Amino acid sequence: MRLLRTMRRGQWVLLAVTGGIVVLLMLWKPYALIEGIQRGGLYALIALPMALILGVVGIINLAHGEFMMLGAYAAYWFRVSAGVDPLVAMIPALGAFFLVGAVTYWLTIRRALKAPELNQLLLTFGMAMVGAEFANLMWTSQPRKPSLSYVYSSMALGQLRFGTYAFIYTAGAIVLLIVLLAFLRRTRLGRAALAVGQNPRGARLVGIDVNRTYLLIFGLSIALVGAIGAMFLTRHSVFPSAGSPFTMKSFCLIAMSGIGNLPGIVWGGFGLGVAEAIVLSFRGYGGWADVVFFAVLVAVIMARSYRRHAA
Amino acid sequence: MKRMLALAVLVMLGAGLVAVGQDTIKLGAVLPLADITGAQGSKAMQLAVDEINAAGGILGRQLELIVIDDENKPEKGAAAIDLLATVHNVDVFIGGMSSGVHLGQIPTLKKYEKVTVWIGAASSLVEQAVVGLDWYFHVHPWDYLQGASYVEGWAAIAEEYPLIQIEKAFWAYEEGAFGTSSFQGSLVAHADWENIGESFKSALLGGGDYRSVLRHAQEEDPDIFIWVGYGADALPIMEQAREIGFTPALFVGSPPGWPADFGESPLANGVVAYGMWAPSIKDVSPVSQHFWDAYIAAFGEEPATYFAPLGYTNVYVVAEAITRAGTLDREPLIEALEATNYVSPLGETLTFSPSNLIEHQGFSKQKILQWQNGAQQVLWPFEYATALPMYPFTGR
Questions:
Q1: CB contacts, 8 Å: B200 with chain A
Q2: Which residue of A231, B41, B46, B81 has the smallest Cβ count within 10 Å?
Q3: A126 touches chain B (CB under 8 A)
Q4: How much is the ipTM here?
Q5: Which residues of A touch B39 (CB under 8 A)?
Q6: Which of B175, B243, B209 has the alpha carbon at shortest distance from A42?
Q7: Looking at CA atoms only, how far is residue B393 from chain A in angstroms?
Q8: pLDDT tens for chain B, residues 1 to 396
């Protein structure tokens, strides 16, 4: 109730418009709404750890999707060698990929923090290539996906039959958002990370170990995206280039919502997912889904820019 | 004096190396080694070479296989031909998988004009590029031959099993060149069907959500649903079809290669596939059984792509032709290859005859296969059939 009382008029309008669109879509294109929210959940889930690195460490990690792909391969390996379900494999993946992230930071990122941004981009782009080639050498380019019966669970509401499992991405994105916000606002390390992200020099002056904070945040983000890779594997095939399209989409989502705006990433993900699903629901126009994705992205960035100028 | 002596030793060593090099008959293969087709194709080639050498070689000499990785890139493929011709001085070019890579290699092959026996590259664009080359032998069926053989196959199946009748087809094809050209070719080949098509974004290109196209197919209620995409799409498309309750009577997949675990899924049961070979052919072909056993004994894994028996065939066809020719000279070798009559582990006997544009085309037919209880079975051609059709598809 307190939240409702503190909402401004503009936010009420936004909430009303969103509610109206949802109701309209439920009546007009219910599948586009359901599947769009599921797609958007996946986009947001993958983008959140990238946003954390960008917001705190200040680096665009172009190897983000490759870390997710390696997480999926790790889960696949667990599945084949020990019969572990990919969703269970998320737990060891968290630990293993935290180490991978920390070592990666210590060996490479740390040395490029003060380098020009182009060098940082080249570094993470190189890491992406190494990750993809490593997967190619280890597992070949043959796609791999475990057969899991729960991924095609579905339910029917009258004439409406839809898959329920893919809501795991929607739920995952919302849970991760809540956990990250709580971590950043309520824990000592999280508040330190926010301070470092806003002003590293100031944070150092007040006694925060900036380098250690960077290492922990980078490790945490890679741990999260590695675990998300395991979740990704439940519904998608993994192959060496499986991650790279998601680096692009994650970066676009962050650009759309603004650096540091984690809730914006989740809302933006849902918006883009639904927009894509609406386009796909028209027969023969599937090829336009990407165009719509980027058109929405450009429109939002332009609107934000216009609003800033107007203010 | 010491320098002169060292120089003389070097010259003698060099001459010795050349002599050793001349002792072997060199086959130069180009394959994408990171892909299962190239990885298993090259292993099968080595298996054939080892068998031939163990049996005494050919013309009293040992065979030597040199494999170069094209990394699925045309420029690497062309450079590999240069390397094989100049540094390794190979006698025959073999191998191949991708049409795109091969189109990039053809100008280089024309430069050397060595005898070439190619097992990959199904695109008719390749056929147009090799018109008039008497030293070029192509083993894999061209795309239009594949289309024609599916038409023939489905007609034969409908005649044999009257329950299976196809009037309406829905094609879900990946939006890239592979899917689009396959769909357009199929429209011509299957002109007697009512064909409806819709593209989708393959997982290989960042897609992976097929539910919209599957729903559209469901609305059309086709007799046959055919998806043309990549291995990465195979299992997710089945899972999403099950999710929305889409079970057409015939569910056909046409990827270049199936993913490693596809057969393990219960959803695979009853899925129809197109291909040149299935492991079950060993049950009806002794040559295929020998290849299967020898491959597993040599490498400790099962051949999982038809490029394995194709690679094995590639080496044997060349080796037998060299034996028949009695020389490595180009003209007698071409004549010997033209007389090829090799009972292959793919089931068919390989001979070379003219296709639409070239003189030396090998296989002309594909097979219609079906996943049954985790394994691919042959439905057509009936002479290699290993199982009866499972019909209709139930999706469970």
A1: 286
A2: B46
A3: no
A4: 0.89
A5: 140
A6: B209
A7: 17
A8: 455 545 444 444 444 444 444 589 999 999 988 778 898 999 999 999 999 999 999 999 999 999 999 988 899 999 999 999 999 999 999 999 988 899 999 999 999 999 999 999 988 889 999 999 999 999 999 988 988 999 999 999 999 999 999 999 999 999 887 788 788 888 888 999 999 999 999 998 889 999 999 999 999 999 999 999 888 999 999 999 999 999 999 999 988 778 878 888 999 999 999 989 999 999 999 999 999 999 999 999 888 889 999 999 999 999 999 999 999 999 999 999 999 999 999 999 999 999 999 999 999 989 999 999 999 999 999 998 999 999 999 876
Q: Which two tokens stand for residue B190?
A: 């299957």
**What values do phi and psi take at B313, rounded to 5?**
-60, -40
Shortest Cα distance from B229 to chain A (angstroms)?
12
Per-residue CA distances from B91 to B233, B288, B319 (Å): 40, 28, 11
Separation of alpha carbons A76 and A185, rounded Å = 35
Q: CA-CA distance, B184 to B188, in Å (whole number)?
A: 7
Q: For residue B239, give the nearest of A141, A152, A287 by CB distance.
A: A152
- Is A137 part of the contact surface with chain B (CB cutoff 8 Å)? yes
| Burial grade of B145 (CB within 10 A; 0-12, 13-18, 19 or more) | buried
Taking CB atoms and an 8 Å limit, are B236 and A237 in contact across chains?
yes
Q: Which of A161, A244, A286 sits opposite B201 (nearest CB)?
A: A286
Contact B206 A163 (CB under 8 A): no
